[in-house]
Design brief:
This protein is mainly alpha-helical. Among the domains are: 33-138, Serine Threonine Protein Phosphatase 5, Tetratricopeptide repeat (Alpha Horseshoe), CATH 1.25.40; 196-307, no CATH class. The protein has 17 helices and two strands. Helix 12 packs antiparallel against helix 16. The radius of gyration is 28 Å and the shape is elongated.
Length: 313
Amino acid sequence: MIRPILLTLLLFIAACYRVPDRIDPRVSYQLQDQHFQQLTGAFPPLSKEERGLDWGKEAVIARAFAEELDLYRAVSTFKRALILIEDSPSRKLELQYDILLCFFLAKRYDEVIEAFEKSDLAHVDKSFYAYHDLLLILYESYRETDHQEKQAKVLELMEKSFPVTNEELKVSRAIREGNLVAINEIACGFQHPSYLDNLMDCYSEHKKSVATAQCLNAFLPGAGYLYIGQRKSAMTAFLLNGLFIAAATQFFLHKHVAAGIITAGFEAGWYFGGIYGAGEEAKYYNERLYERAASGVLNEHKLFPVLMLDHAF
């Protein structure tokens, strides 16, 4: 009779401390010079006359810095060119866009938004050479700064003008957010098994169960850590819980009730903390597993917005 009650109690405790079985991955990219060297500029090259003007000289120098991804110097020089330019609205827009692109490549998303709001780029349309890339830059910047309404508006513009890119962004977002339900739904829309199916199969095959890790640690402290491959943590948890249980038992047997209660209190902290910790470690393990697989997919299929850009400097 006692064993079923104890088993039920342990399962109840494990459930109370259950860690949500979802992942919050952090997948990022590393900017590669080679990728941008393959891209052409978005705008017509400066004419000989423009290159001879003060603003043109600054623009030439700025683009040389930008091509080397010396983005801090590039922004400063583009700004000098913007100050000097007078009678060319189209070239002014190009310089404003180049500043946005520099901030974007440097992952300074707040400054992208600030520069955009101070520029004339809010009034451009599809006739602007870099309109596609501008929408990508704004989408990612609003996403990174959690401006959801503005992000949604950019997606509406993207859907109208560039539906293929819009679909790629949906896939990209699902993968980067670890939205497994959305990934499965998108994968079902493909006629044949795709890289999304491979991603999900790889993750499902190797992931660890958060609930299993917690239940194992509830039955035997340390077992949950051993389940996810953390042998040192498993041994530490087992020894600490064992020592505290033994000490509390000895105190109670020798009728040192106060000492026994204090020791049992410490043990309860280690025990419950171990259950929660095993679940957290399983979640962490799954996130790192997913990140490795997702990063490969996102880079190989160019699903990061920065890799969807059509043009460089």
